[in-house]
Structure formats: structure tokens, C-alpha cells
Amino acid sequence: MTRVLWRILMGVLCICFVLFAAVQYNDPDPEVWATIYSIGAIWTGLAAFAPRLLWTPAASWLLLASMVLALAGVVYYWPHAAHWWREEVWWQDEESREGMGMMILAAGIVLVGAHRFISRPA
């Protein structure tokens, strides 16, 4: 993927995570989920708008820690409802929505991390 397309993808993900964080006002625990989505917005925003910062030693370690925590979050928030991916289930089940949100967040952070640790500095 070219660097321009990569940065566009990361920019779109950053906007999505910002919007996800913004709509948490009616969630039972908005401060938790707004913070979680904000972390995704920060990493994808750095990848889109300041990719050189990802190569600093502190950012590298924080990114690695974020990847591990996001993957642990997927395990922790994995939905237990049957057919949780169906709209009629997740529309009614908060646990399914939280699990899917964590999956999206982990995918975004792992994408940033994979790109960071596989590619060379921009």
C-alpha cells in the first residue's frame, strides 16, 4: 500500500474513533469507552498526520503496550450472546456492542503497530 493510501486509511480510522468517542455520552460508562476510543484515535492520528513520531523509542513501547492491551480487551469483552454479529442481537445487547467496539479498536491499533514494526520510517 502506498504511503498516501496508508495515511488516508489511518485518517479515516482516526475520524471514526473520534466519532465513536463523541457518541459515548449516552453509554452507561461513557468515560471508559470515550477513553478507549480516544486511544485508537491518537494512534491512528499519529499514523496519518505525524508518522515519524511512531519511531521514537517511547512511542514504540507505548504502541506495543497498546496493542497487547487492545488484544486483551478483545478477549475480555468478547460477546457471549449467540449470533452476536446479527443486527437484531447487537442492537439490543450492550455486551455485544462493546465487544465489537473493542474488536474494531484492536484492529486499528494492530494495523498501526504492524505497519510501524514492519516498515521503515516515512
Kindly describe this structure.
By secondary structure, the protein is an all-alpha fold. The chain has one domain (3-118). It is 74% helix and 0% strand. The chain has five helices and no strands. The chain has helices spanning 3-22, 30-49, 57-77, 87-90, 94-118. Helix 1 (3-22) runs antiparallel to helix 2 (30-49), helix 2 (30-49) packs parallel to helix 5 and helix 3 runs antiparallel to helix 5. It starts with a helix and ends with a helix.
Summarize the structure.
This protein is mainly alpha-helical. The protein contains five helices and no strands. The protein has one domain (3-118).
Structural class: mainly alpha
Task: Provide the succession of SSEs.
Answer: HHHHH
Continuous helix count: 5
Sheet-strand content, in percent, reads: under 5%
Mean pLDDT: 89
Query: For the terminal residues, how far apart are their CA atoms?
Result: 13 Å
Tell me the total number of β-strands.
0
Shape: elongated
Q: Radius of gyration, Cα only, in angstroms?
A: 15 Å
**What's the structural domain tally?**
1
Q: Roughly what percent helix?
A: over 70%
Largest sheet: none
| Poorly predicted spans | none
